[in-house]
């Protein structure tokens, strides 16, 4: 029955009145590409490159090995967008050779972009490999950094991309509340934002994403999280730039409508969720999504936000 409901809805992501919201896939490597293509992904919104580094905890993979893997993903989306995230090591994604040593709070320590800025040779190698992989391909390459806290971080990343001779758009993930609060400042250095709602929830609610006991606070329907999404999307709009979502939040069809209503410009998710999100989005107008977003933000709890958005979207 669920399958039947999906039939007839194909093609690019859009609301029923034609407001386009590209639906992109989250991939962890070339082996995830066939499912993304099959689901009709319009590109890749989050290429997690950690997989390449996990085989060998002693050192970074060779540039040749990286070029090969990046090229396989880039080639699968000719003319499409591919957003590659540079290595996000540390905390929930530990790597021995980049370990900052004992830290009292690894999630608040040297991780993500901070790790790469401490190991510039690893970042340079990755950026050079990306530049080589994209050579001669028509793909629209975008490269983003995880865990950007502020404009200084964004500038350090953009400078590294320029120094590596990378011809791509450079972006910042919004995973730390400070980056959402000062999104316009971050956008002075980069061309797009991508909201990592998993980490953004973790840092907004001081609730470790790996601790089940605090999972209530990891719920992406939390109105405080929606406020930060809204701030980021508004800032991007004011700067004439894009702001996507690539965290788990994008894979919930109802929440995808709310995110669209908040002004998010693309949604990236595991391939399996794409048909459901596409079908739900196609049933509602942009104005309905905006009303659902306002209703959700007016709520006090995640549960009330979900119910309020559901009521708006089903009642019209
Ligand atoms: C996120 O934090 O929402 C995100 C997309 O990155 P990851 O889950 O890989 O940390
Ligand atoms: Mg993250």
Offer a quick outline of the entry.
This protein is an alpha/beta fold and 316 residues long.
Your description of this structure?
The protein is α/β, with parallel strands linked by helices and 316 residues long. 44% of the residues lie in helices and 13% in strands. It contains 15 helices and eight strands. The protein has helices spanning 2-6, 33-38, 50-54, 63-75, 113-118, 120-134, 151-163, 177-181, 183-186, 197-204, 223-238, 253-261, 274-281, 286-298, 302-315, and strands spanning 23-27, 43-48, 81-85, 140-145, 169-174, 192-195, 242-245, 266-269. An eight-stranded parallel β-barrel has the order 1-2-3-4-5-6-7-8, surrounded by four helices. α2 links the parallel β1 (23-27) and β2. α4 packs across α6 (120-134), α11 packs across α14 (286-298) and α14 (286-298) packs antiparallel against α15 (302-315). The radius of gyration is 19 Å and the shape is globular. The relative contact order is 0.13. Residues 146, 175, 196, 198-199 line the site of magnesium ion. Its cofactor is Mg(2+). Keywords: Cytoplasm, Kinase, Magnesium, Metal-binding, Phosphotransferase system, Sugar transport, Transferase, Transport. One of its GO terms (molecular function) is kinase activity. This is Phosphoenolpyruvate-protein phosphotransferase. Mg(2+) binds at residues 175, 199.
Spell out the helices and strands N to C: HEHEHHEHHEHEHHEHHEHEHHH
Give me the side-by-side strand order of the main sheet.
Answer: 1-2-3-4-5-6-7-8
Large-scale geometry: globular
Average pLDDT taken over every residue = 95
**Portion of residues within helices:** 40-55%
Identify the bound ligands. phosphoenolpyruvate, magnesium ion
Task: Please tell me how large the radius of gyration is.
Answer: 19 Å
Quote the distance from N terminus to C terminus. 23 Å
Number of strands: 8
Low-pLDDT segments: none
Query: What is the overall number of helices?
Result: 15
Multimerization state: single chain
Largest sheet: 8 strands, parallel, barrel
**Percentage of β-strand residues:** 5-15%
Structural class: alpha/beta
Domain PEP-utilising enzyme C-terminal: 12-284
Enzyme class: transferase
Catalytic activity: L-histidyl-[protein] + phosphoenolpyruvate = N(pros)-phospho-L-histidyl-[protein] + pyruvate
EC number: 2.7.3.9
């Amino acid at each position: 029955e669920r399958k039947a409901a999906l039939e007839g809805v194909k093609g690019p992501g859009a609301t029923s009145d034609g407001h386009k919201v590209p639906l992109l896939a989250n991939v962890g490597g070339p082996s995830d590409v066939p499912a993304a293509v099959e689901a009709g992904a319009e590109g890749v919104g989050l290429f997690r490159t950690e997989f390449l580094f996990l085989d060998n905890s002693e050192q970074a993979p060779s540039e040749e090995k990286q070029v090969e893997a990046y090229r396989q993903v880039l080639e699968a989306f000719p003319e499409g967008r591919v957003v590659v995230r540079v290595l996000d090591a540390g905390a929930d994604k530990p790597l021995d050779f980049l370990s900052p040593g004992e830290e009292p709070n690894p999630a608040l320590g040297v991780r993500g972009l901070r790790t790469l800025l401490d190991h510039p040779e690893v970042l340079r190698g990755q950026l050079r490999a990306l530049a080589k992989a994209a050579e001669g391909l028509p793909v629209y390459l975008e490269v983003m950094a995880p865990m950007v806290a502020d404009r200084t971080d964004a500038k350090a990343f953009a400078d590294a991309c320029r120094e590596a001779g990378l011809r791509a758009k450079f972006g910042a993930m919004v995973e730390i509340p400070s980056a959402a609060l000062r999104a316009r400042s971050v956008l002075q250095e980069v061309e797009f934002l991508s909201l990592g709602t998993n980490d953004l929830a973790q840092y907004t609610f001081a609730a470790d994403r790996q601790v089940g006991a605090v999972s209530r606070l990891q719920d992406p329907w939390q109105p405080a999280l929606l406020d930060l999404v809204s701030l980021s999307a508004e800032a991007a709009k004011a700067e004439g730039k894009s702001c996507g979502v690539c965290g788990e939040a994008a894979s919930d069809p109802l929440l995808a409508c709310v995110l669209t209503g908040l002004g998010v410009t693309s949604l990236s998710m595991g391939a399996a969720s794409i048909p459901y999100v596409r079908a739900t989005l196609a049933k509602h107008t942009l104005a309905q999504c905006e009303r659902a977003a306002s209703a959700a933000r007016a709520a006090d709890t995640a549960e009330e936000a979900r119910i309020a958005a559901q009521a708006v979207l089903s009642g019209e």
